[in-house]
């Protein structure tokens, strides 16, 4: 039989002690030793404001502030928001839950690209283009087209980060990352970082 080093023996003993403690620790309450009459095994209850956090409504509150800051305050009178985008981190589908002071429409990004930059021209496609043109034609000018990443909240739900991209003509635009903090019940932008410009 080979000699076992002191380190190997210590590792083996430590492993078995760990397994034994794990078995004792995870025993069902019926198999645990009885407690004195004045104690109980109830689990502590965590009280936190995170439980009250509605991620869906907070997400759209963050989006609304970001879109207002990046586009509306810059003079855009309406928005086309890509609701199914694949060119930015965390693709997602969006809903009409934005609180914006300007009109907006949600549109599939590929549909938008096909409309403005080509694509097949069968009768069904021509009909789709006419409908799309009518929707966009109703919007006041200038129009911004925006891509949004998913909102990333910290564990405490007190900060949020989101990326936004403005695309124009397929070649021009910019990308920004925004950091927001929640204070006194509302989200405020605390940092804007330019990511790219074309």
Task: Give the SSE layout.
Blueprint: H1 6-25, H2 55-70, E1 78-84, E2 104-108, H3 109-117, H4 123-137, E3 143-148, E4 152-153, E5 159-168, E6 172-183, E7 186-197
Parallel strand pairs: 1-2, 1-3
Antiparallel strand pairs: 3-5, 4-5, 5-6, 6-7
A few lines on this structure:
With 198 residues, the chain is an alpha/beta fold.
Give an overview of the whole structure.
The chain contains four helices and seven strands. It is of the alpha/beta class and 198 residues long. The protein has one domain: Nuclear Transport Factor 2, Chain: A (Roll). Strands 1, 2, 3, 4, 5, 6 and 7 form a seven-stranded mixed beta sheet that branches. β6 and β7 form a beta hairpin. About 7% of the residues have low confidence.
Assigned CATH architecture = Roll
Q: Which sequence of SSEs, written as H and E, runs from N to C?
A: HHEEHHEEEEE
For the biggest sheet, the summary is: 7 strands, mixed
Query: Can you tell me the overall shape?
Result: elongated
Counting H and I runs of at least 4 residues, what is the number of helices?
A: 4
Which structural class matches the secondary elements? alpha/beta
The amount of helix comes to 25-40%
| Amino- and carboxy-terminal Cα gap | 71 Å
CATH uppermost class: Alpha Beta
Give the low-confidence spans. 39-51
Mean pLDDT: 77
The proportion of strand residues reads 25-35%
Count structural domains.
1
CATH overall fold name: Nuclear Transport Factor 2, Chain: A
Strand tally: 7
Radius of gyration, CA atoms, in whole angstroms: 28 Å
